[in-house]
Amino acid sequence: MKPAQFEYFDPGTLDEALKLLRDHGDDAKVLAGGQSLVPLMNFRLARPKVIVDVNKIPGLDYVRDVDGMIHIGALTRQRTVETSSVIKGKCPLLTEATYWVGHLAIRTRGTVGGTIAHADPAAEYPCVLSALGGQVVVKGPAGERVLTADDFFVTFLTTALQPTEMVTEVRFPTVPPEAGWAFVEFSRRHGDFAIVGVAAMVQLDKQRKCTDARIALCGVGGTPFKARSAEAILKGTEVTDKVIQAAAEKVGGEVEPEGDLHGSAEYRKHLAKVLTGRTLRKALEKAGKVG
Amino acid sequence: MKLEGTYTFKAPQDVVYKLLLDPAALRACMPGCERMEETAPDVYEATMKVGVASVKGTFTGKVQLKDKRPPAAFTMAVEGSGTVGFMKGEGVVELVAQGGQTEVKWSGDAQVGGLIAGVGQRMIGGVSKMMIGQFFKMMEDQLGKGGAR
């Protein structure tokens, strides 16, 4: 299959790219790794008139550890995240989630900024960003904006990004070394879109009381679902099996997924409950064990 | 694909009924409505550009209003086709007076086929519901502007 006709630009600087977006507005689409956009264009579901290929722009490919946040340049490939020792050391939840992103070939080309800007409701990185409370840095004609995950993701494939703006950096908070974390996902075949996925991070004090809990799910709505009530159930308690069960039930009761060919709404609610429980148990096994 | 939901208007039942059948208000509030003309009594031809983000398709089709029971209910039959597929469906809209407010209950069955149904299957249900929600929200805003009064 071939895409509909489009005009192609490959600017060499960020300023040139932003100028192209300003000139073409809604008609233009940014091409990064192309792992979602190109199939959509080949199926002719997306017919952008102008493609702004940002792959030649230098300085957008980096992983930096800055004051408790891992700053990742938008053009950083998912495979770079997967193999980064900085990320494995400071935000291993992201390393684990990366394993679930498509297949190796897709991760080799797909970018961090691309998956965040595309905002697929089943995608792993938006889910982790929402769970940890990360930030998205965007640049446009009015300069730079830093948005929280909550403000950035609006609905299915829709973000707070304006047509004249571009994601330049994604910031994931680091996971404290004594915290436990896990990413669990279910799909029919590995590499398929998640039917439901769960990202969780749990911190315990010396008495094994929960001091912090972060949970988010993908595949259950238009945006990542931040499980705030379940987090509240865990915080301040000694996390027993009963508490985990209560938190999982809360998530299963609160999510409002839609059914499709891959699973009915009821099945997704059930999965949300079961997988939340599994993810929390897996995270708790790691909590308190430094390294 | 079954679709259903509710929306509560802060207005009396007869006002809401009139609003929901007002062509000018419909034209202003239907998501991506580019054209809508009454071709026969209660039959409208419309062109709509619908979708999310860069995934959009233009549909041209017919909307027919049936079984009108003012101010409590009506049925809406929709069929259309376009570049990315086709859709056909029928929905019942019921209006229930609740004090000064009106609860609008909508339910229907839609068949979506072609490319959009194959590739976009994962998101059609959620996106449709979202667009219907947006539609009612915009209709309520029309009330504030004095439409259909």
Can you tell me about this structure?
The complex is a heterodimer of chains A (291) and B (149). Chain A has 291 residues and is α+β, with helices and mostly antiparallel strands. Chain A has three domains: 7-53, Uridine Diphospho-n-acetylenolpyruvylglucosamine Reductase, domain 2; 63-173, Uridine Diphospho-n-acetylenolpyruvylglucosamine Reductase, domain 3; 181-286, Enolase-like, domain 1, CATH 3.30.390. Chain A has helices at residues 14-24, 37-42, 78-83, 85-90, 92-98, 104-109, 112-118, 124-132, 149-152, 228-234, 241-254, 265-286, and strands spanning 7-9, 28-31, 50-53, 63-66, 69-73, 135-140, 143-148, 153-155, 158-159, 166-173, 180-186, 196-204, 210-218, 225-226. In chain A, helix 10 runs antiparallel to helix 11 (241-254). Chain A is globular. By secondary structure, chain B is of the alpha+beta class. Chain B has a single domain (2-141), classed as START domain (Alpha-D-Glucose-1,6-Bisphosphate, Chain A, domain 4, 2-Layer Sandwich), CATH 3.30.530.20. In chain B, 30% of the residues lie in helices and 52% in strands. Chain B has a seven-stranded antiparallel β-sheet with strand order 1-7-6-5-4-3-2. The longest helix of chain B is centred in the last third of the chain and has 24 residues, at 121-144. Chain B starts with a strand and ends in a 5-residue tail after the last helix. The chains are: A alpha+beta (291), B alpha+beta (149).
